[in-house]
C-alpha cells in the first residue's frame, strides 16, 4: 500500500491550520473535535474527517499551549526511592498507570535511588512541568518526610506515611494481614504456630505481630513469646530462625514467616531435618513474591501485599482531590489477601 505524502512543507511540524485545510473545516472546528468539546454540534462525519486528517499529518496538539490554555497538564508525578528496581514495581506502577490512563493522564516516574538531592530536584522539575499531583512511594512500609515543596500540589504517600499524619497515605493493613496468615494455620488445627517476624520496630513487624496475637486470642490460645523470633528478611535468616524453632523442646507444627524470602530459608531448614511440608510442618509466607512463592516445592501459601490496589488508590485519590479541592489528609489501609497454594 502506498504511503500518502505529507501535506506540509518538508521539515515543518504540522499545525492545527494544516489539519483544518486538509479536512476542509475551520481551525476552531479542529480544536473542538480534538479536545472533545461537549455540545459543539459538529456532525460525526466531520469529526471522523478531522481525526483522519490529523492522523494523516501526524499532528499532535501542543501540550505546552494546552497547559497555558487550560492550566491542566494531565500528568501525575511518581517519585520513588527504589521501587522501580524491585520485583513489586510492576504491580504498583500498573495500578497507578491504569487509573491515570482511564482519566486521560500519564505518570512521570523518577526513581531516586534513595538520594535526597535527586528526590528534591525531581519534585522541583515535576512542579515546573505543572504536574497535577505527586505520588511519593517507598520500597517498604515506613515513615517518611517528603520535600516541603510537595505541598504545592495534592500529594499521597504510597506504602509509607508521615509521623504527624499531615500527608494523605495508603499502606497495607499489616495487622489484618498478620491475622489472616496466622488464621490460615490455626484453621487447619495447628495450636503451636511459630512466627519468624521481620526486624523489630518496623511498621510491618509491629502490625503483623499484633495480627498474630489477635488470631491466637480469637482461637482461645495464649501468646507464647518463645514461639516468636526475628530475622532480617533474608533466606539465610529464615533458615536460622526456623532451625532454632524446630530444635526447641516443644517445636511448632506450623510457621508463619514474615516474608517469602524467609519462608524459602525455612523450607531448607525443614528439609535438613527430614520434615515434610505441609504434612509435618505447615508454612505460610507474606508478600506473595511470585519468583519465590509460586516456584517453591510445594508452592508457598502466602499473604499478598496489595501493590496494584495501592497504586490505583493513590491515583484515584489525587484525581478526587483535584476535582474537589484540598481535603483533610486520609490515612488509608488496604487488606492483604490470602493466596492459598500447597504449604498449609
Automatic annotation (TrEMBL):
PROSITE patterns linked to this entry: HTH_LACI_1, HTH_LACI_2
Q: Does the keyword Repressor apply?
A: yes
Keyword Transferase set for record? no
Q: Which UniProt keywords apply?
A: DNA-binding, Repressor, Transcription, Transcription regulation
> Which intervals hold domain HTH lacI-type?
14-70
N-terminal signal peptide: none
Per the UniProt record, one Pfam family is Peripla_BP_1
Annotated GO MF terms: DNA-binding transcription factor activity; transcription cis-regulatory region binding
- Do you know which CDD domains this protein is assigned to? HTH_LacI, PBP1_sucrose_transcription_regulator
Q: This protein is called what?
A: Transcriptional regulator, LacI family
Identify the species of origin.
uncultured Rubrobacteraceae bacterium
